[in-house]
Amino acid sequence: MPWSNQGGPGNRNNDPSGQPQGPWGQGSGGSGGGNNGQPPDLEELLRRSQDALNQLLPSNFGGNGMMILALVGLLAWLLSGFYTVGPNEIGLNLVFGKYLGKTQAGLNYNLPAPIGDVTKLAVTDRNVTDVGFHGEPSAERHRNNGQPHASQPQIAEAPEESLMLTGDENIADIKFRVVWQIDPAKPEDYAFNVANPRATVKAVAESAMREIVGQSQIQKILTADRKLIEPACQQLMQKVLDDYHSGVMVLQVLLLSVDPPQSVIAAFRDVTAAQQDLQRLGNEAEAYANRVVPEARGAAARIIQEAEAYREQTVAEARGQAGRFDKIYAQYKNAPSLTRQRLYIETMERVLGGAEKVVIDDPSKGGASVAPFLPLPAFAPFQGGQK
């Protein structure tokens, strides 16, 4: 029953004189107290405790009994050194503050306190560090599968973290997230080498991102180089953390947003739109050139080939006519009269072959004025009795 310092005749903590008694039998203090409000005597307290223990122990409980009691207490103290490690944890054994080794999941043992101590680290849990903004705690987001909880405060901007200077002396507003975990192979580094691992991870992430952004141009950061920045930042962070022997494994770096500062974002959007229009028009001009130039080259090649064919044809015809003339001239030398008559007939055949003709006989030789002849060409279209 809790001690009450209230007065009254029914209070068992009051002495016969009516003064209230404290938990050790003395007065409650004040001008009427037996010790004027002073704390109880330590020797008197120990004596009373020893008397109470002697009353509880048997009368024959001597030195051997005290030894057995001490052994039982020692055994209970030693048994309290057993502990369990979860499946996602690794235990670090300490004796007098010195690290002795790590233990895996299951039942393990280490000397109990105050000699020994055990530090348990969740090495498989993924932790999240945000740079450029402040929102819900990382552990809470991890339990919600990366989604903010409804009861958590709204995300607040942190321009002192997100504003970074680029290599072409522009400013970029970059917000990103780092996913990391404790290295299962070196959990002791995480526990003992770095005073504040979470703050260290955030500082290293911000420093690595500033170094990479400081070597890039803002237009490339806003467009093509976004996918190159993430692995580069992850590699640089891992290198620095390994140099610190921090026991941290960087799993992923995610760029959440890459924008110009709010004061100039409208101008940057106009510039980006103009560059996109320039690139689009350049692509259209290149496509037109790729279509027109081959057509022009094909037409030029066709004309050249036709000219070469016409030249070959003309030269061949001229050579053929010259060879024919040489052959006729050779025959003319052998029979001039016959050759002239033959040439005359062949020429008349070529000239009059396709024209309509009327044959007139020479009246001086007793012939009729008009000589009848059979119009053989008129019967040519009739084939087998059909026109």
Question: What can you see in these coordinates?
Answer:
- The protein is α+β, with helices and mostly antiparallel strands.
- Among the domains are: 82-122, no CATH class; 127-263, Band 7 domain (Tetrahydropterin Synthase, Chain A, 2-Layer Sandwich), CATH 3.30.479; 346-379, no CATH class.
- It is built from 10 helices and 11 strands.
- The strands form 4 sheets. Strands 6, 9, 10 and 11 form a 4-stranded antiparallel beta sheet that branches. Strands 3-2-5 form a 3-stranded antiparallel beta sheet.
- A hairpin with a 2-residue loop joins strand 2 and strand 3 (98-103).
- Helix 6 (197-213) packs across helix 8 (226-244) and helix 9 (265-334) crosses helix 10 (336-352).
- The longest helix has 70 residues, at 265-334.
- It is rod-shaped, with a radius of gyration of 57 Å.
What's the short story on this structure?
The chain is an alpha+beta fold and 387 residues long. Among the domains are: 82-122, no CATH class; 127-263, Tetrahydropterin Synthase, Chain A; 346-379, no CATH class. It is 45% helix and 17% strand.
CATH topology of the domain at 127-263: Tetrahydropterin Synthase, Chain A
Q: Provide the CATH top-level class of the domain at 127-263.
A: Alpha Beta
Radius of gyration: 57 Å
Largest sheet: 4 strands, antiparallel
Stretches where pLDDT is under 50 for at least 5 consecutive residues are 1-34, 137-153
Distance between the amino and carboxyl termini: 143 Å
**Architecture (CATH level 2) name of the domain at 127-263:** 2-Layer Sandwich
State the helix count. 10
Strand content: 15-25%
CATH superfamily of the domain at 127-263: Band 7 domain
Report the average pLDDT across residues: 78
